């Protein structure tokens, strides 16, 4: 028995050392922060790495297909949150997040540097970036060919002036050269639908469903994603078979900066121009998930999201720009990024209506593509009893 005393004492000592180490180990090392976002939102890895180096807080990132799926997941797990911070909530989902109380109010330390028009009074969500969704067009495709005074124009190559906005989609000459991402499967396409509804509301002379019917019948190309529209059909700076037929598409004012990211070096110029009319501005937000057990560390991560390093690298794959107004731009943005004047999406007016608009879009496009004329809805009227 006595021969085992040193071994017992040594075991007790090791246990005490381990216990003390466990007590002094920072809690943020034991419980990494859980960051929820989606595949279309770019989370700057450089900024996350620097945040971990500076604070010792590990960050685990979970991604859903899109912003709607993110909010759906937050609703399903509200009683047992699976995330501490969420980022990438766009203007279309802001109202639902706020009304469902899926986030907690928090004001980041550097919030005074955020653009005033993007900040929310209740601090339920923090704006981290925004984008102007609008048309982009080829420059070279709309240069009027020069000809001699006595030379007749070539009827096979009739010149069209460059498109100036949505209404040019109803011009037969422009319609066949336009490619649009579908709002049924693309967030960028959904922003197109918002712009169209704003320009041609249902109570206007030409309601947007009729507009869609006409543009499809005139030959506007609709593809599932903006990537297909931009890189496979439009791609003004690439040698693609479809290039000769598609000269303009829906994207963002920052698409030129997005395009050069896929090139080995910055080119001197691009065969791309932004069409500044009929644009809409969409905001991306971040927030503290309601019920998080790591509110203090989650707040530190939200603070980091409005710091210069995070904001410098935050432009996402859609071509957005930082919410801060004092941030130096990347080389791509300095060379090719553009900012246009565009109204903010009114999420409180739109609310859940955009889901209904998608169903209408599907019906109109399917009918127009098949050549079937849409029948007016049947209205039932109950006459008063005599």
Summarize the structure.
The chain is of the alpha/beta class. It has 2 domains: about 30-130 and about 280-345, Periplasmic binding protein-like II (D-Maltodextrin-Binding Protein, domain 2, 3-Layer(aba) Sandwich); about 135-145 and about 160-280 and about 350-370, 3-Layer(aba) Sandwich (D-Maltodextrin-Binding Protein, domain 2), CATH 3.40.190. About 35% of the residues lie in helices and about 15% in strands.
Provide structural commentary.
Helices cover 37% and strands 17% of the residues. It is of the alpha/beta class. The chain folds into 2 domains: 28-132 and 282-345, Periplasmic binding protein-like II (D-Maltodextrin-Binding Protein, domain 2, 3-Layer(aba) Sandwich), CATH 3.40.190.10; 133-145 and 160-281 and 349-370, Periplasmic binding protein-like II (D-Maltodextrin-Binding Protein, domain 2). Strands 1, 2, 3, 4, 5, 6, 7, 8, 9 and 10 form a 10-stranded mixed β-sheet that branches. Strand 1, helix 3 and strand 2 form a beta-alpha-beta unit. It is globular, with a radius of gyration of 27 Å. Residues 4-28 and 239-243 have low confidence and may be disordered.
Strand content: 15-25%
Poorly predicted segments: 4-28, 239-243
Number of domains: 2
The gyration radius over C-alpha positions equals: 27 Å
What class, by secondary structure content? alpha/beta
CATH C-level category of the largest domain: Alpha Beta
Percent helix among the residues? 25-40%
Q: How many E-type strands?
A: 10
Mean pLDDT, rounded to whole units?
85
**What is the CATH superfamily of the largest domain?**
Periplasmic binding protein-like II
Report the biggest beta sheet as strand number plus sense, adding barrel if it closes.
Answer: 10 strands, mixed
> Please, how many helices?
15
End-to-end separation? 107 Å
SSE order:
HHEHEHEHEEHEHHEHEHEHHEHHH
The name of the CATH architecture of the largest domain is 3-Layer(aba) Sandwich
Q: Sum up the overall morphology in one term.
A: globular
Q: What is the CATH third-level topology name of the largest domain?
A: D-Maltodextrin-Binding Protein, domain 2
């Amino acid at each position: 028995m006595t021969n085992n005393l040193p071994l017992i004492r040594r075991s007790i000592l090791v246990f005490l050392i381990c216990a003390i180490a466990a007590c002094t180990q920072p809690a943020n090392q034991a419980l990494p922060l859980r960051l929820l976002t989606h595949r279309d939102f770019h989370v700057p890895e450089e900024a996350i790495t620097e945040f971990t180096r500076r604070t010792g807080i590990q960050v685990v990132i979970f991604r859903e297909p899109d912003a709607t799926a993110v909010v759906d997941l937050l609703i399903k797990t509200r009683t047992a949150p699976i995330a501490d911070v969420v980022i990438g909530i766009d203007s279309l989902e802001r109202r639902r997040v706020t009304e469902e109380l899926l986030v907690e109010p928090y004001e980041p330390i550097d919030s005074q540097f955020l653009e005033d028009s993007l900040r929310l009074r209740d601090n339920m969500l923090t704006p981290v970036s925004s984008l102007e969704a609008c048309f982009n067009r080829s420059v070279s495709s709309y240069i009027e060919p020069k000809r001699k005074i006595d030379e007749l124009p070539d009827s096979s190559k009739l010149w069209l002036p460059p498109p100036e906005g949505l209404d040019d989609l109803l011009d037969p000459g422009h319609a066949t050269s336009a490619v649009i991402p579908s709002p049924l499967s693309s967030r960028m396409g959904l922003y197109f639908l918002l712009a169209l509804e704003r320009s041609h509301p249902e109570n206007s002379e030409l309601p947007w469903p009729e507009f869609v019917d006409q543009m499809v019948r005139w030959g506007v190309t609709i593809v599932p994603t903006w990537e297909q529209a931009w890189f496979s059909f439009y791609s003004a700076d690439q040698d693609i078979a479809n290039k000769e037929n598609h000269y303009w598409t829906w994207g963002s004012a920052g698409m030129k900066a997005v395009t050069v990211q896929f090139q080995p070096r910055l080119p001197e110029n691009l065969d791309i121009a932004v069409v500044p009319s009929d644009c809409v501005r969409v905001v991306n937000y971040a927030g503290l998930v309601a019920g998080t057990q790591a509110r203090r560390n989650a707040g530190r991560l939200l603070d980091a999201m409005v710091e210069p390093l995070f904001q410098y690298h935050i432009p996402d794959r859609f071509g957005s720009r930082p919410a801060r107004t004092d941030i130096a731009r990347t080389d791509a943005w300095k060379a090719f990024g553009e900012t246009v004047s565009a109204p903010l999406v009114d999420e409180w007016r739109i609310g859940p209506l955009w889901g209904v608009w998608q169903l209408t879009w599907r019906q109109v496009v399917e009918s127009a593509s098949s050549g079937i004329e849409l029948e007016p809805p049947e209205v039932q009227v109950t006459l008063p009893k005599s």
